[in-house]
Structure to design on (231 residues):
């Protein structure tokens, strides 16, 4: 399926009113480039030109270069002799393994968030999920993905498990790219409801409910992936 052109959907409001700490330029560059790749504004197989990305993101070449090397390390970008840097392909054969890996990490993060989230974070994660449900009901994929990203941010902050969060980011990006490549808007209502179950489990502080929500979300992604792979 040819993906619809999408604007950068990764910018999202934070649920925490406190000012965020100043971020490294390389981290800002990573988020900007990852958004371009995961929403397929830059397609798999495309050649990466550092200068063009610096101009497109409005960032310097040094932070862009650092961000690209980080993407090489997680397999989002591949480095090939004489061809330079290329956006990695979406590997259908490998995608179910990606989901299984993400499943283990999402269960852990959900349990940690249920235990450790602040009251503000619990409220924030439910609100993000509610925004996903509202966007899904409207069939608005851009708002849906924006709220999805915001939910991830709150959940990851609430978990206070940096090791798990660092490990789960690459599978999340791969799942997001897969979704944009094979999107079917009629199914986002189910995805939104799965996110809501996860958020409500975390908000109540019930680890078992939070884990069940994470399992439902991963089941949804796996069923969706199998539909594509089995065609």
């Amino acid at each position: 399926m040819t993906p619809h052109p999408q604007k950068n959907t990764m910018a999202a409001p934070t649920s925490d009113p406190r000012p965020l700490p100043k971020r490294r330029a390389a981290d800002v560059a990573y988020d900007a480039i990852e958004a371009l790749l995961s929403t397929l504004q830059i397609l798999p197989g495309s050649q990466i030109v550092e200068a063009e990305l610096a101009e497109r993101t409005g960032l310097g070449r040094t932070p862009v270069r650092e961000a690209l090397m980080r993407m090489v390390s997680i397999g989002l970008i591949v480095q090939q002799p004489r061809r330079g840097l290329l956006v990695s392909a979406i590997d259908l054969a490998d995608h179910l393994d990606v989901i299984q890996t993400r499943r283990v990490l999402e269960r852990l993060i959900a349990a940690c968030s249920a235990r450790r989230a602040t009251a503000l974070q619990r409220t924030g994660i439910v609100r993000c999920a509610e925004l996903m449900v509202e966007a899904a009901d409207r069939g608005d994929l851009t708002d849906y993905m924006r709220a999805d990203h915001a939910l991830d941010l709150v959940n990851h902050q609430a978990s206070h498990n940096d090791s798990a969060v660092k490990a789960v980011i690459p599978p999340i990006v791969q799942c997001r790219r897969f979704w944009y490549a094979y999107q079917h808007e009629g199914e986002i209502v189910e995805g939104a409801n799965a996110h809501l179950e996860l958020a409500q489990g975390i908000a109540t502080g019930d680890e078992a409910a939070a884990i069940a929500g994470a399992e439902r979300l991963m089941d949804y992604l796996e069923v969706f992936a199998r539909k594509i792979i089995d065609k």
About this structure: The two ends are 12 Å apart (CA to CA).
